[in-house]
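Figure 3 (text version): structure tokens given as input.
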């Protein structure tokens, strides 16, 4: 039995994608609710997440390039658009040779949750990054090639991982907690504003930023880009001429600029060496 199998509870989804719970005994503060079933408030979303997890999507055999990405779907922190902003982009990343991990995180705005963004969203986000990094060899991943993509509210999760202190605790009894939670690269897709500091830390990851100009979240993208520019850190920004908010992977749009946007991300990943087998 591998270390991963021994330490973490795993199950399988209908797509035969392994599910790894972030904490074997439940998330801190939510242990008593870890066995509650998730709900489907809409056909496109899930809620009532009290046992946060990562669903693992591996590239086709022989195509993995050693890069991994954690995906945080959106949903306003009251639900999670886990299919269109989780499973679908994960499979797209698989086609590029990237191992994808879809994060189902606790929802602090859900009625009666008792959760907070600063404590619980941060805990789930950091734990996901640390878990993947600590068990990278189990998935054929380079621990220095782990990125994070956040859609809408999931972009606020990414703000925490990209811009706030993420160092692990070298004295922690849990080896996962010893790892740094900073992603090696990051992509914000029409993100929300929570968690953006006045000044970016010097170790903020290389950034890909994308939004539509007719989305009221466009100001967030411009704000992040301005801060990257002020900090002299690498970034690439795309403001689409149309698309509104929540266009997911763009396939529902008749506008070419929208339904082709994932290629812009693929080009950025390629240009920066994340699609090469050796970086």
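Below: residues designed for each position.
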């Amino acid at each position: 039995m591998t270390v991963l199998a021994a330490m973490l509870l795993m199950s399988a989804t209908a797509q035969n994608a392994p599910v790894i719970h972030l904490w074997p005994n439940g998330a801190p503060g939510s242990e008593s609710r870890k066995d509650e079933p998730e709900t489907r408030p809409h056909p496109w979303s899930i809620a009532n997440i009290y046992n946060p997890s990562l669903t693992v999507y591996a590239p086709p055999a022989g195509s993995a390039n050693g890069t991994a990405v954690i995906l945080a779907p959106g949903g306003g922190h009251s639900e999670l658009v886990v299919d269109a902003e989780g499973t679908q982009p994960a499979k797209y990343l698989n086609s590029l040779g990237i191992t994808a991990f879809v994060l189902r995180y606790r929802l602090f705005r859900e009625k009666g949750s008792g959760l907070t963004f600063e404590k619980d969203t941060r805990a789930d986000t950091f734990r996901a990054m640390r878990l993947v990094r600590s068990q990278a060899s189990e998935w054929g991943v380079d621990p220095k090639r782990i990125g994070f993509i956040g859609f809408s509210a999931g972009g606020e999760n990414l703000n925490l991982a990209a811009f706030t202190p993420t160092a692990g605790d070298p004295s922690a009894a849990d080896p996962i907690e010893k790892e740094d939670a900073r992603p090696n690269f990051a992509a914000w897709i029409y993100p929300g504003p929570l968690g953006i500091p006045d000044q970016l830390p010097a170790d903020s990851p290389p950034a890909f930023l994308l939004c539509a100009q007719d989305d009221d979240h466009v100001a967030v993208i411009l704000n992040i880009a301005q801060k990257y520019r002020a900090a002299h850190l690498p970034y690439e920004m795309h403001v689409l001429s149309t698309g509104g908010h929540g266009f997911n992977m763009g396939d529902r749009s008749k506008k070419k600029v929208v339904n082709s946007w994932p290629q812009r991300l693929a080009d950025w990943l390629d240009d920066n060496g994340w699609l090469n087998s050796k970086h």
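DSSP finds seven helices and eleven strands in the chain.
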